[in-house]
Design brief:
Helix content: under 10%
Radius of gyration: 15 Å
Strand content: over 45%
CATH architecture: Sandwich
CATH superfamily: Jelly Rolls
Structural class: mainly beta
Shape: globular
Distance between the termini: 49 Å
Number of domains: 1
Number of strands: 11
Largest sheet: 6 strands, antiparallel
Strand order of the largest sheet: 1-2-3-10-5-8
Number of helices: 1
CATH class: Mainly Beta
Length: 125
């Protein structure tokens, strides 16, 4: 059993969002990650994918657009989205409110498994 006091978990600035990481791959004998993601109004998480990780997202606050493999989803509170490995996805908060979701990532890739399309395109030139 592990109890996590959410108020004691720091917010970490990431690329287009902030996150509270409650459970991480880096912990001993752990092969999953559990995170609260918060997007400020009018922000975007650029298109990216994971080669090995499967993600389950549960929207807890607000609404926003999620694009998964060119399919646009208007995600709202209590929606659940499953993102499979290699599915290109991005998120956009085009509202005046916070857009927030819990994210459960399965399968510790043992190495970086986050690939932004912008970074890949830039490396080719």
């Amino acid at each position: 059993m592990k109890y996590i006091d959410r108020k004691k978990v720091p917010w970490v600035e990431k690329r287009g969002y902030t996150a509270q990481i409650f459970l991480d791959f880096k912990e001993k004998d752990n092969n999953s990650r559990f995170v609260l993601i918060r997007m400020k109004p009018h922000t975007e998480i650029k298109a990216h994918y994971h080669k090995k990780i499967k993600e389950i997202l549960f929207v807890t606050k607000g609404s926003g657009k999620m694009i998964v493999e060119d399919k646009e989803i208007n995600a709202m509170q209590e929606d659940i989205i499953l993102i499979e490995p290699n599915e290109i996805h991005s998120m956009m908060n085009d509202t005046d409110d916070i857009f927030e979701w819990l994210e459960f990532k399965m399968c510790d890739p043992k190495e970086n498994d986050l690939f932004f399309l912008d970074d890949i395109k830039q490396k080719k030139y």
